[in-house]
Known about the structure:
Structural class of chain A: alpha/beta
Oligomer: homodimer
Distance between the termini of chain A: 38 Å
Order of helices and strands of chain A: EHEHEHHEHEEHEHEEHHEEHH
Number of helices of chain A: 11
Shape of chain A: globular
Largest interface: A-B, 59 and 58 residues
Radius of gyration of chain A: 21 Å
Amino acid sequence: MVHVVLDAMGGDNAPEEIVKGAVDALASSDSITVTLCGRRADIEKALEGLDYPKDRLLIENADDVITTEEAPVMAIRRKKDSSIVKGLTLVKEKKADAFVSAGSSGAILVGGQLIVGRIKGVERPPLAPLVPSTTDKGVSLIIDCGANVDARSSHLVQFAKMGSIYMEHVIGVTNPRVAIVNIGAEEEKGNMLVKETFPLLKICPDINFIGSIEAREIPNGGADVIVCEAFVGNVILKMYEGVGKMMLKTIKGALMGSFTGKLGGLLIKPSLKGVMKTFDATEYGGAPLLGLNGLVVKVHGNATSKEVANAIRQCETFKQQNISQRIADKINIKDA
Amino acid sequence: MVHVVLDAMGGDNAPEEIVKGAVDALASSDSITVTLCGRRADIEKALEGLDYPKDRLLIENADDVITTEEAPVMAIRRKKDSSIVKGLTLVKEKKADAFVSAGSSGAILVGGQLIVGRIKGVERPPLAPLVPSTTDKGVSLIIDCGANVDARSSHLVQFAKMGSIYMEHVIGVTNPRVAIVNIGAEEEKGNMLVKETFPLLKICPDINFIGSIEAREIPNGGADVIVCEAFVGNVILKMYEGVGKMMLKTIKGALMGSFTGKLGGLLIKPSLKGVMKTFDATEYGGAPLLGLNGLVVKVHGNATSKEVANAIRQCETFKQQNISQRIADKINIKDA
Lengths: 336, 336
C-alpha cells in the first residue's frame, strides 16, 4: 500500500485535471490511497460525476494556495494553511508516503527540505527529471535540475549515488551508466567543479562511472544518469523543450509551403504523433526530489490527468523498492 | 581588400575541402586574397585541376600539423612550424587580416590569445558561434562557447558589448537584444555569477539589455545576443546538435514503420531539406574568436568547402565593418 498526498490546487489545470488524475490512478491499482489536499468545496465539485473508491480517496482541507509568483521561503513560512505546507506536513508526520504537486517549483523544493527534511547524511536533495534519450529504456535522468545552484563536488558525488539507485530500482536499468556533463571527453577538461568532482566519481565504489559526457551525447543515450549542477541541468532540460518545439514549428512551416508537402504532412501525421509521444514528458510522470525522509514529486505546471496519474504510480514503485532506505544506506558509506 | 590565412591542414576533410573552399571564396569576390598555410606538396596536389586567380591565392609552407589530441598550450609553444602557429603569426605581423581553421579548437583558442594577442582592455576573447533561432535573421549569437571556463562578471559584460557589435555590424541586426542565460526570468534568480552580472548589464550604456533568458527561449528567438559563461555556452551549442539529431532519427524511424508513413516521407523529403538547411551550421560560416588584434575564426572539424568559403566571406565583412576598432573603442569606455 502506498498513500500519496496530492496538491489539488497546484498547476494550470487545477483542480479538475489533478482530481481526474487521482481517480485514474486509483482505478489502475488497488494498493494506492490518495489524499487530495486543498479547498474542500473545489475538490468536491471536481469529483462530481466521477466514479472512485470512497475508502481510498480522502480529502484534507487547506484553505490557502501558494502561487508561483510568491517568494518560496516566505510563502512556506507564512502560509501554514496552504495545500503545499499541509500536504508536506502529512508526509513529515508519516501519515502519507509521498507528496505530488504541479504547483510552485520553488515552494515545493524549499518546503520539501524545510518540512519533510533530508535523510541523515544527504547534503542537498536534488530534483531529478527523466528526459527522452535513445537508451534501452528510452530515458535518462538529469540530476540536479533543482533550485540549488553553485553546488560543491561532494554534492555531485551524492547526486551520482542517488541517481543510480533511482534508475536501477524505479526505472529498472541494470548497472546504470553514470557520467558527468563536461565540455570535452578528456579528464583534464572542464571547469573547477568538474575537475574536482571527476576523480571523486572515479573512486566511488557504488556507481558505474563512465567518465565525462558532452551535452550532444545526452539525447543520444550516452549515459543513464547525467550528473551536473542545477544551473547546467536546467539549461539541458529547457534546451530539449526549446529545440524540439522549434524543429516541429520549422517542419510544419516547411510542409505548408508546397502541395506535396501538405499531402505528405497529412500522411505522416499518425507517425509524427508517435514521435511527439517520445518527447512527451507526461509519459514519465514527475521529477522526484531525492534524498528526503519521504518522497516529493514535482509534476509540470501544465500537467494533465495522465501525468498526475503516472506520478502517483511512480510513488508506488518508489515505496515498493524502498528507495529512501537504499539512499540512506549508501549515502553514509565512506568512499574508498 | 581582405587577406585571409587559411589552415590547409586542419579538420577531417583537409586539405581537399579546405582548398576547395578557398577557391570558391575567391571566385565569389574580387577583393579576397587567401594564403593557404600547410604542407606545400599537399596543397599543390589539392589545387590540381582547380581554376583560381593565381595572384590572389598564395601558399605559405608549414611542415608541421597540430592534432586535436595534443595539449593546446604545449603544442602552440613547441610546434613553431605548424600551420596554426605560422598562420596566426602572419595575422600578428599584420601580413594578413584573419586566420580561419577547422583544426584543434584548443590550439586555435590558445594560439589566438598567445600569438595574435588581445585588444587592449579585453580581459578574455570569447568564442561566439551563431545558432539557428526564430529571430528575423534566423540566428542568435552564443557568447562565450570557448575554452575559458569559470568566468567573472566583468568578462560577461565585455562579452555582451562585443556580441552586440558583431550582431549589429556583421549580421545586420538593428539594436540587438542582449540577454543573460538564467534559470528563471526574475532578477533575483540565478547562480552567483549571474546575480553579480545582471545589475552590471542593466547599467551598461552601450547595449540593449532585455534581462534574463531561459534556455528554452533561445531557439525561440528570445534574444539576439545570448550571454553566458563558456561551460553553459558549450552545453547550449551541443544540445542543439544532440536534440536535433535525435528528433530526426526518431521521425525517420516512425515513418519507416508504416506504408503511409513511407509514402508521406517521400513527399516531405524536399521540404525537410529546407528544415535541415535551417539547422545546418555550415550556412553561417565559422565562430569568431572576438577581442583579438585581428580576426580568428574557428570552423567545424568536419567543415566542407561551403562552410570554409562562408567563413572567408565573413572575414571580409568583419574587416569592412572595422569590428576590431569598434570593439577597441567600446571596451575602454567606463560604464556609468
